[in-house]
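ok so I'm stuck.
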Amino acid sequence: MSCTLVTGASGFVGQAVVAALAGAGVRVRAAYRVRPAEEYAAAEVVEIGAIDGATDWRRALEGVTQVVHLAGPAHRRAGDAEYRREIVDATAALAAQAEAAGVERFLYMSSIKAGAEQGGPLRESDAPRPQGPYAAAKLEAERAVLARTALSPVALRPPLVFAPNAKANFALLLKLAASPLPLPLAGIRNQRSLISLQSLVSAVRAALDQPQAQGVFYVTDRPALSAPQIVASLREGMGRKAGLFSAPVAALAPRALSETLVADDSAFRAAFAFAPREDACALLRACGAAWAAR
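replied:
not stuck anymore, here's the structure
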C-alpha cells in the first residue's frame, strides 16, 4: 500500500490534511519536529527534529510515494536567515531526498505572497513580485521543488486560509466580527481572495489524485470579497446583523482588510476539475456559526 508523508502535521493545515487523508483510507505518515501526545488520526508518526538543509528524511521517506510539504514558519516573525534555513534550505533538502527515494508526487504548500502581496487578479503567468523575506523564501522554495521534475511537483499558492480555529489575522477578524459594536468598515471598496480550510484540504486531495498536472497554481474560494462582505458574512453566521457604517476611520483598517489581493484560480480548477460546492460567502457564514458555537 502506498504511503503519503505529511510534514508540518501538527499545524493548522497539517492536522486537517492528515485527518482527511486518513479518513479517506490513505496510509499517512505524519512528520513532527517533536512527537506529540496526540497523533491527529495519523496511522504512522515520525519525529524528525529540526527542519533545515541538514535534516535526514530517509526514515520518513521509506515506502512513500507522495509528499505533502507543509512544514515551515507561518505565523511567527523571523529573520532572513531563519526563513532561508526553514523554508528554502529545508524544502530543497526534502525534495532532493524525496527524488532519491523514488517519490512520485511532491506537493509544496506555498503562499499567494510568493506572487504578490496586493493587486490582482494574480495569474500563474505573471512575473512574481514577492515583498519581504518570507515571500521571497516561499518563491525560492517553489523553484527548488519545481526543478525536480521526476517528483511530478506542484506548488499551491493559497490566500488567507479561514476556519473557526484559524490563527493570526483571521483569529483577530473573528473577534472583531463577534464584537457587539458597529464597525466603520462600510466604506472600504477592496477585494480579497480567501480560501476555507476545507476547500484547501479538498484542493490538496485533488492535486494528489491527479499527479499528471505540474507547476504552480493559485487556489481560492470564489468570489473575492470586500472587507464589508467578509465581516457581514461572518456576523450573519453568528446570528447577527452586519452593523457596518462608513467613517474616515476605515482608512486606518489593517492592511489585510483594506487592500486588494485577488488571485485567479482558473488554471487549478481546469487542471484538476476542482469546483467547491459552496461559495465564499456561504463558507464564511458557516465559519462564523461554528465559531459562535464553540
